[in-house]
Design goal:
With 197 residues, this protein is an all-alpha fold.
Length: 197
């Protein structure tokens, strides 16, 4: 296993045609996972942005599958939603991208890319750096999401309805994901040694 690989790269076939099919399956399945995580939602009476499991799915997918596949997964998810499939947590079709949650949706692409790139650099191998990677992804995501809300309202309102209610849950998600990822790599290394590769 190379240090510049992700968990998904461990299982990726070596020949080009199989690798292409593998990548396509990873992207499609990843987009469906994000769509499913969007359905786990809780609406807040004071915010147009619901609490969902999407942030967790986006960041974990980015770390597991890497920058390019992560970004492509989120782009596939956006295309599915724009085409009218009921995959978004709030809204259907192109209007969801232009609505209050649009910044978060676009931010998914950037956050998955950034977190995936950090994983490719080995940040997912230790708890401390995995936390740093996930927090970096959160910052990128909220920069897009709160920034978009600020254009629709104002900065203070955007922070109150688009950031503050989500901090505690996101801290918990980051801790859970960061605690699991290094263990996953250790398990893969043990399996790799057991296979005699």
């Amino acid at each position: 296993m190379q240090m510049t690989s992700t968990v998904a790269d461990v299982f990726r076939p070596r020949d080009k045609s199989s690798a292409f099919i593998y990548d396509a399956i990873v992207v499609i399945c990843g987009s469906l996972l994000v769509a499913l995580s969007a359905q786990l939602k809780v609406y807040l009476p004071f915010s147009p942005v619901p609490i969902t499991a999407q942030t967790f799915a986006v960041l974990v997918l980015g770390i597991l599958i890497g920058s390019r596949r992560g970004a492509l997964t989120m782009l596939a998810y956006l295309v599915e939603g724009v085409l009218g499939l009921p995959v978004f947590a709030a809204g259907i079709g192109p209007s969801a991208i232009l609505g209050p949650t649009g910044g978060f949706l676009v931010g998914f692409v950037a956050a998955a890319f950034v977190v995936g790139r950090l994983a490719e650099m080995g940040w997912d191998r230790r708890i401390s750096t995995a936390i740093a990677a996930m927090v970096t992804g959160e910052v990128v995501l909220y920069a897009f999401g709160v920034g978009w809300l600020a254009m629709l309202t104002d900065v203070k309102t955007a922070v109150v309805i688009g950031l503050y209610p989500f901090i505690a849950g996101d801290v918990l998600k980051v801790i859970i994901a960061a605690a699991v990822l290094p263990g996953a790599w250790k398990l893969l290394q043990l399996l790799d040694k057991g296979a005699g590769r």
